[in-house]
Amino acid sequence: MSLHDILRSQEVDRVFILGMAKNAGKTFTLNHLVRSASRQGERLGLTSTGRDGEPLDLVTGKAKPSIFCPRGTLVASARLALDASSASFVNEEAMGIDTPLGEVSIAEVSGEGNVELAGPLFAGELECLLERMEERGARRAFVDGSLDRRAAGRVVEDLILAVGAVVSRRLDEIVEAATSLVEQLRAPPPPEHVLEALEGRASGCSFFREDGSREALPFSSMLGRSRELARVLDDESPFAIYVAGAVGEDSFATLARRDSPVRLVIRNAASLFARPSDWRSFVGKGGVCYAVQPLRLLAVTVNPYSPEGWEFPPDEFKFALEEALAPVPVINPAIYD
Fold first, then answer.
1. How many Cβ atoms sit within 10 Å of the Cβ of residue 131?
2. Are the C-beta atoms of residues 42 and 3 closer than 8 Å to each other?
């Protein structure tokens, strides 16, 4: 089954394409989806959480694959990014959303070509763009993102994850990292009694005890809060911890170091950041992570080639990930182009 078949069978309207690392194959996956939709006569909307499609990586200075858009595609991108695109546009609509590259506009591709995407940083702005592109006739919308830009997960619940050889020279390390991330992204909803305890408490962080009592914590997220969290945990043995905001790597590591298991309840798995080793430790001690707003991982795409100079046999690379990630579909888009 191809990626496009999965989207059609699941009746998916919005998809967040997440790259496990730079050069993992995210843009190749996006281009494949655009080509597949174009062959079916579907009109698309495209945007990004940040900047994508530029010819050179701003960090590494290496060439990046372009995002190619056929005629009729709706693109939500910042002024300077639109100006740098080789595609031509008509019917531009300024959206009043500011970025470092100028105001974001929605424009229709009148002459096919490459497009640079520079979209909003905030979930509310992204929701506004997606709704407007749908009003203008987009059958499906793709949001180009990356691991450090997961805000789209609060607006788009359906994900495709790109996993590439660039993650490591060792296949077993790639599989371990991918497995940990997939488990996080597929965090299930909490049991009914936990949801009932959370009712009406959608903001901030809280401890829940076995006796049903609750204590609010003095911070609203767990970004950069590892020391404060460690001090609180020294005095408490919570039944569950609820975090409405993001959970950073250091704070999650603090939870993973506890000898007793922790039930972590988060708003959305897009706000969880955990290193593979800490995730394994957390799960190994009986820790469980729930998401009040679960995400749906539609598929994992694979790229067995690294721009750093190493590669894996394509079939071996795909098979190793299929075994580890089942039942999530693992697809090499290259075989469908």
1. 12
2. no
Length of the chain: 337
pLDDT, one tens digit per residue, over 126-158 is 999 999 999 999 999 999 986 555 555 667 889
Residue 179: burial class (beta carbons within 10 Å; 0-12, 13-18, 19+): middle
Instruction: Name the residue ranges covered by the structural domains of the chain.
Output: 3-183+295-336, 189-291
Residue 214 CA: distances (Å) to CA of 114, 192, 194, 209, 232? 53, 17, 12, 6, 14
- Write down the residue that tokens 């079916």 correspond to: 40
Classify burial at 298, counting beta carbons within 10 Å of its beta carbon; exposed 0-12, middle 13-18, buried 19 or more: buried
CA end-to-end span of the chain: 13
The residue among 224, 221, 263 whose CA lies nearest residue 244 is: 221
Tokens 């972590």 locate to: 264
Number of alpha carbons in the 13 Å side-chain half-sphere of residue 297: 27
- Three-class DSSP category at 68: strand
Residue 159's H or E segment, with its range, is strand 158-164
Can you say how many angstroms the Cα of residue 309 is from the centroid of all Cα atoms in its chain? 26
Q: Which helix (H) or strand (E) holds 303?
A: strand 296-303
Q: How far apart are CA 187 and CA 295, in angstroms?
A: 8
Per-residue pLDDT tens for 258-282? 888 888 999 888 889 999 999 999 9
The residue among 291, 313, 292 whose CA lies nearest residue 302 is: 313
User: If one looks up domain 3-183+295-336 in CATH, what number appears?
Assistant: 3.40.50
Nearest to 121 by CA among 155, 149, 96, 102: 149
How does the average pLDDT of the chain come out, rounded?
A: 88
Q: How many angstroms separate the CA atoms of 14 and 26, rounded?
A: 16
DSSP state, residue 156: -
Chain Cα centroid distance, residue 316? 25
Dist. CA 131–CA 133, nearest whole Å:
6
CA atoms within 13 A on the CB side of 245: 14
Residue written as tokens 């788009």? 156
From residue 253, alpha-carbon distances to 183, 224, 271 in Å are 16, 11, 15
